[in-house]
Design goal:
- It is built from seven helices and 15 strands.
- The radius of gyration is 22 Å and the shape is elongated.
- The strands form three sheets. Strands 7, 8, 9, 10, 11, 12, 13, 14 and 15 form a nine-stranded mixed beta sheet that branches. Strands 3-2-5-6 form a four-stranded antiparallel beta sheet, with no helix packed on it.
- The chain has three domains: 52 residues, Structural Genomics Hypothetical 15.5 Kd Protein In mrcA-pckA Intergenic Region, Chain A (Roll); 88 residues, Alpha-Beta Plaits (2-Layer Sandwich), CATH 3.30.70; 79 residues, Alpha-Beta Plaits.
- The model has no long low-confidence stretch (mean pLDDT 95).
- By secondary structure, the protein is an alpha+beta fold.
- A hairpin with a 7-residue loop joins strand 8 and strand 9.
- Helix content is 20%, strand content 26%.
- The structure holds uracil.
- Uracil binds next to helix 6.
Length: 238
């Protein structure tokens, strides 16, 4: 149960201060009955605002097909659009706000999860229980044939790092040495780009195609589209 004014602010309709005016205007109902006081205790699932149920009343957990050229920052950087511009505007006014679960580079596209549940975001980004990610790459020059064994060995140390990368599965295309998939069990800064650059094959295009058991292709999302997903898919994911 939430106070009416807290509910309106929690779900991004207006500030707690503005709530009294919304309530006076008869915009809030509980089971069709007008709510008359900002301090009325309400079950959000039974509330209508302007005749509509409160969206994502149990919290937000969605998958976004991140397009190229968008940053995962909350504030625009150097004029680049942010992924938050692709989501309903009311979401950024919710408190807690929706945030991405990890990030993709501006020039990486693909599967990104977002939630407004801080504990869940924290749990799913913890290095201790990293959820495997799969990236599809296209490189500028061919990936050398010895790269899969090197990546699998856990002995590749990236420039400026002290500890080697964990074993990673590199699956180059049998017919195209500039294309393939890389499965990671950890998330370091620009990791895919740096690993492929380390074997002389800089990345030309990069897309995240899977997180745990969730495949981007299974969601049928065009770049910029999002869809709700069940967070349970990622609890105890490999
Ligand atoms: N590795 C990268 O290099 N970039 C990403 O966006 C994700 C993983």
């Amino acid at each position: 149960m939430l106070r009416a004014d807290a509910l309106l602010s929690r779900f991004g309709y207006c500030s707690r201060r503005e709530a009294a005016a919304w309530i006076r205007a008869g915009r809030i109902r509980l089971d069709q009955e007008p709510v008359t006081s900002p301090s009325a205790k309400l079950d959000p699932a039974r509330v209508l605002v302007d005749g509509e149920p409160v969206p994502f009343v149990n919290g937000i957990f969605v998958a976004l097909h991140k397009p190229l050229g968008y940053t995962c920052s909350h504030t625009p950087e150097n004029g680049a659009p942010t992924i938050y511009e692709l989501l309903p505007t009311q979401w950024s006014a919710r408190s807690p706000a929706v945030q991405s679960i990890g990030r993709l580079d501006k020039e990486t596209s693909g599967l990104l999860l977002l939630s407004d549940d801080g504990n869940l975001v924290h749990a799913l980004t913890s290095p201790r229980r990293y959820i495997q990610k799969v990236y599809e790459y296209r490189t500028v020059s061919p990936v050398p044939p010895e790269a899969p064994a090197l990546f699998a060995s856990g002995s590749l140390t990236l420039n400026g790092e002290k500890t080697p990368c964990l074993p990673a599965a590199l699956e180059p295309d049998a017919t195209d040495p500039c294309h393939g998939f890389l499965r990671l069990h950890e998330g370091r800064y620009h990791q895919v780009r740096r690993m492929l650059a380390a074997v002389g094959a800089p990345v030309a295009e990069l897309t995240r195609v899977a997180i745990g058991s969730l495949q981007l292709a299974s969601l049928s999302l065009l770049p910029g589209q999002w869809a709700p997903v069940n967070p349970q898919l990622f609890i105890d994911a490999p």
